[in-house]
# Entry
Amino acid sequence: MSIQHNKKYKRHTVTAALPYANGPIHVGHLAGVYVPADIYVRYLRLKGEDVIYICGSDEHGVPITIKARQEGVSPQQIVDKYHELIKVSFMEFGISFDVYSRTSDPVHHETAAGVFRTMYEKGAFVEKDSEQYYDEENRQFLADRYITGICPHCSYEKAYGDQCENCGTSLSPTDLINPRSMLSGNKPVLKKTRHWYLPLDEHEPMLRKWILESHKHDWKPNVYGQCKSWIDQGLQPRAVTRDLDWGVKLPLENTEGKVLYVWFDAPIGYISATREWGETHGKDWEKYWKDPESKLVHFIGKDNIVFHCIIFPVMLHAEGSYILPENVPANEFLNLEGDKISTSRNWAVWLHEYLQDFPGKQDVLRYVLCAAAPETKDNYFTLKDFQARNNNELLAIFGNFVNRTLVLTHKYFDGCVPKAGQLMDADREALESLAGFPGIIGKNIEQYRFREALAQMMNLARLGNRYLTEAEPWKVFKENPARVQTVLNTCLQLCAGMALLAEPFLPFTAKKLQAMLNLEARAWDQAGKQELLGPGHRVNKAELLFEKIEDVQIRAQVDKLLETRKNNNQGQSAPPVKPPVSFDAFSAMDIRVATILEAEKVPKTKKLMKIRVDSGLDRRTVVSGIAEYFEPEALVGKKVLLLANLEPRKIKGIESHGMLLMAENNEGALTFVIPEERFENGSPIS
RNA sequence: GGCGGGGUAGCUCAGGUGGUUAGAGCGUCGGAUUCAUAACCCGAAGGUCACGGGUUCAACUCCCGUCCCCGCUACCA
# Structure
């Protein structure tokens, strides 16, 4: 179906998710986004299509300003560092962006502000005043992340305004107990501020028609399902502005200290980057975004589906002059050796480190990541698999066939392509199969089935190995050298096909192979054609395309990860000691021995348990978030410690009077804190 | 709890408007071979297609329920 679609399109605009410039690139990013997108655009270029491949660093947002504060540098210095690192490692890895821009660039600020202004003038936004925390000393509004306080759930003292890192709960700044500004340390005050909202709900009919009706069958199930879920749940207006000084300034009067919210400015980065490319290359960039004959495709990970399928399209639609994406082939997540990849926990294989540790092996990683890409569900990357795919597939099948062919060509024909004689069935079959491959591989790529496309590419090499083994030229040569001419001619045609068809997947290898064959670059559809290498054409000496990866190399990488895991388990499992408290503050808490009388799960919740306890003073109800770890029956009769004078609070409609004390390990599992002996209910703790 | 995605050979994955022996690659085992980086080639073993019901002449494929994994979402005082 995509093949027919392409006929409608004159050009392709391909974007890859903008990496956030607060850390380096890892294998998860690559497998999910950059490798598939790169395969896609390299293929389109070989097809002779007009295509641009857009990316850049996403450099705004609060996390970057926090990181800058922590390191005592400016946000610009943070993004400069990572932008450069990311850009260089992408280039070295062969990700063939036409432009890799950045959102701190003036072109972007101008473009993003322009989109905002156009939308503003069209009345696309709703203005709303609200109360937000403000630091009077620094005279600025505080981002959620800039407010700390005591987590109302776990009493962790350094919870942030958006999330408690100790218990993982997401919070809102006003939930925090005893909030403090991270800038001045003062208690922030609530102050009125005005923000602009994008009323996503008003665009629901458009989204329903566009996604749920017209893309029902050509979007991936995970993407379509997620969109449907969001739309059906009802969309809410979303604030597009923030009180912050790092970002794109609002292009309106009297809006000092306000910037575009990072999710609003980031996707516009694709447009800015295209504009930058157009200006530096003397091209009309607007066609790529505004002409309905342009096919816009966003490559992203599943965490970005909502932004690229709902929010950004609504923005483009509301702006009025832009096209909407034709497809958003989002991938799932790649895990690493049994655990989620985590930048903060350093659980990752970093691209820039890989390039150092495995020089010249870009294609190996590209191959492995494509073969194990999480196209339909999360998948695991393991170093053992990496080694096996290199040694048993790339080397043993692809590299080996090329090597065998070239060695034999030199051995029997002095490096000249022999002339084919009378074709036998086997020869004909091999050549016919070859002719089918550009179409088969291409069709899979156009349908975003990169794993299958890659497997087909390898099948060409498999076919070559089988053909060569069955033809046995090394046996036949003595009595029938003419037959060997035909056989090796056929093998060389297969190699030439591989040299072209491998390019989207293994660009470095393809180049090497083309050089070995003295083959100049050709268009994709030429790959099936015979006589890419005419009789008498000289080929160069065989060089190895891949080398074996030994156990020691893999072990070194595994050790590196084990070291990380060890550090994580030691350093981070125990949260840091909280700031000192006075004795008075401690003794203000009234903790008692109590006994659980009844327990039942709160309906329609995952974690909540409604518990009736005898505190020695009274019988009371406590709601506790422990249902994931305990069965209600197992709790009855248990001695527990109860924080008895905690302010009552309604949870899911149930009034909770106090809180049960629990210990939590680094896996998040809970256990009761109990007195060693069965003391009477009501016994105080001090 | 709600919503979405997924649960198919040891591993990574295909597949199917329901229809004879459920596929591929890798791994394993056996054979053959030497042109090739002990690689290639041939063959074999391996699956009650998560589980339980239902519809049907027939289900892995459709329907209902349950369980497990991932994500979004509510909840964790």
Summary: The longest strand of chain A covers residues 189-199.
